[in-house]
Structure formats: structure tokens, C-alpha cells
Amino acid sequence: MAERNRTRHTGRFTPYLFLAPYLLLFGTFVAAPIVFGVWISLHEWDYMLPNKPWAGLSNYTDLFDPDSLDFDDFWQSMRATGIFTVASVPFLVVIPLGIALLLHRRFPGRNLFRALYFAPYVLGVAVVGLLWRYLLDPDVGAVNFVAGLIGLPDHTAWVNSLPWAWIGLVAMTVWWTLGFNAVIYLAGLQDVPAELHEAASIDGAGVWHRFWHVTLPGLRPVMAFVVTITILASANMFGQSYLVTDGSPGKDTRTAIMYIAQEGLRGFKMGNAAAMGFVLALMLAVVSILNFRLMRYKE
Q1: What is the spatial distance between Cα 94 and Cα 11, in angstroms, rounded to a whole number?
Q2: Cα radius of gyration (the chain)
């Protein structure tokens, strides 16, 4: 009996032993950097200088003070981030859903098309950025060349004028990342019971009604996840703008992440940059929570 009690008592720690490797990695590479980032945001942190004076919450309050040096640039970059997010998320939610519905059907070569749609996602942002920088070049780009061949304007300034810069950035991002969302939708479609579609068909429901009343409700948890990760990814856009437009025209396509990187790495103001990062992260956390609450699954 005593041996059994000893084994039961020892077994309480078994889950924690299995979790220990993950907790060690999480603490080292996630929790510790977050705590250190908060500490940096409370200082005037120039990593080139030995002294880091205490700043308290001034790095945060400056972001909401119209008279501060950071106010205009930060909120202009937040505006650019908002424009890109609003413009890209609907395409990255709807188009992959349509592709997933098509690829969910059985037809010859289905696996090939699944691979083709997902293939761009495995490319790095540097490869995609340089590729599209060439395609969108106003002088030698393939986009303007093809437009001229079919009778459209062939001198469009895709990288240094509005709204063309935003159109180019959204187009390249949709082309690059839609395969990831399509794969997630495909996985979700596997869990929608075929019996529900059969029952709806027997009751006389057409294709649209089956999609609206059977497929979409079944995909609701998956769609909540897709919308959330897409918003987060779009709001953290950096490489596309940095490599293709370099924030032009002017600073109109300079996103928040791009401005934070410039402030911290080029301007040596790591405290300000850290505060901006946490403000952005807090806003995205609120958006994510609201999205999950609005799209939570209901029986």
C-alpha cells in the first residue's frame, strides 16, 4: 500500500517532466525576451552607449502626445499598416476558401494543383520581394510590358505612387500566402460531415444553400483561426514594403514594423521602438480576442 501511494505521489510530477523541455524553450526564447523588452521600453536605450537612463512610461506617453517627435511618424505608420491589413485580409480569406472548395472535389491532377497553389508559400520574403520588385518595375517590369501588349497603360508607377503601390503590395502578398490559408481550409473541409450535405441535398437544397447552411457553419472555427492569423500576419508586414517600395511614395507605405525597425536599429532608440512594439501587440491582441468572440462556434 505504501509503495502504491509513493508511486501515485511521484506520478503527479510526470506531466511536468514531459512539459519541461517546452517550458525551458518557451521561457528562454519567448518569456524572457518579452520581459527584457518591457525593461528596455522603460529606458532611453541606446545600445551603442553604456548608460541607459530610466524613462518610466515616457516612451509610451510620447506615442499619444501630439507634440512629441514620434507621434506623427508612428501613427502614420500605423495608418499604413491599417490600410494594408484592411485591403489584404478579405482577399486572403475569401480567395483561399474558393480554392479550397475547388480542390476539395475529386478530379484528375488534384494533388498537383494543391502543390502548385501552396508552392509560393515556401519561398522566403527576400525571394518574393526581389521577384515582384522586378515584375512591378515601372521601366523594365513584366507587368507594364504585358499591360502594353494588351492595350492597357504601360507606364504605371507600381512602386512609387498611390494607389498602385498598395495594389502591388496586396497582389504579391495574396499570391505568396494564399496557399497556406487554402491548406487550412482544406483540412477544415475534411471535418464537415458528408452526411449533412447528403441530407440537405435530399431536402432539395441547392449548391448555394448547402454552402451557406452546411459548409460555412462547419468551417466557423477554422475561419476564426484563419481570419485571426491573417490579420496578425498582415499587421506585421515588413519585408514586402521594405524590398519593393521602401516605404514610398514618401512614407505612405512604411508600415509600423518597418518604422519600429528603423527607429530601433538605425535610430538607436530601442526604448522607443520597444514601446511601439508593445502598443502594436496590445492592439492586435484586442483585435484577436474580439474576432474569436464574434466568430466563436455555436452549436
Answers
A1: 48
A2: 25
Mean pLDDT of 100-124: 88
Question: Whole-angstrom Cα distance, residue 292 to residue 228?
Answer: 8
Give the whole-angstrom CA distance, residue 242 versus residue 84: 14
258 confidence band (pLDDT: 50, 70, 90): very high
Domain regions of the chain by residue span: 68-294
**pLDDT tens readout for residues 201-231:** 777 777 788 888 788 888 888 998 999 999 9
Rounded Cα gap, residues 41 and 135, in angstroms: 40
The Cα-based distances of 232 to 44, 126, 201, 207, 220 in angstroms read: 28, 20, 38, 33, 18
The pTM for the full model equals 0.88
> Helix, strand, or coil here: 268?
coil
Which residue(s) pair with 43 in the sheet? 54
Please give the C-alpha separations between residue 227 and each of 91, 175, 214, 233, 278, in angstroms, as whole numbers: 11, 17, 19, 10, 21
Measured in whole angstroms, the distance separating CA 203 from the mean position of its chain's CA atoms is: 40
Question: What whole-number distance in Å separates Cα of residue 82 and Cα of residue 231?
Answer: 10
- Cα-Cα-Cα-Cα torsion 276, 282, 285, 289, nearest 10 degrees, comes to -150
pLDDT score of 295: 73
Q: Over the range 233-263, which residues count as b (16 or more CB within 10 Å of their CB) and which as e?
A: bbbbbbbbbbbbbebbeeebbbbbbbbbbbb
Which three cell numbers, joined as nine digits, stand for 121?
A: 508559400
CATH annotation of 68-294: 1.10.3720.10
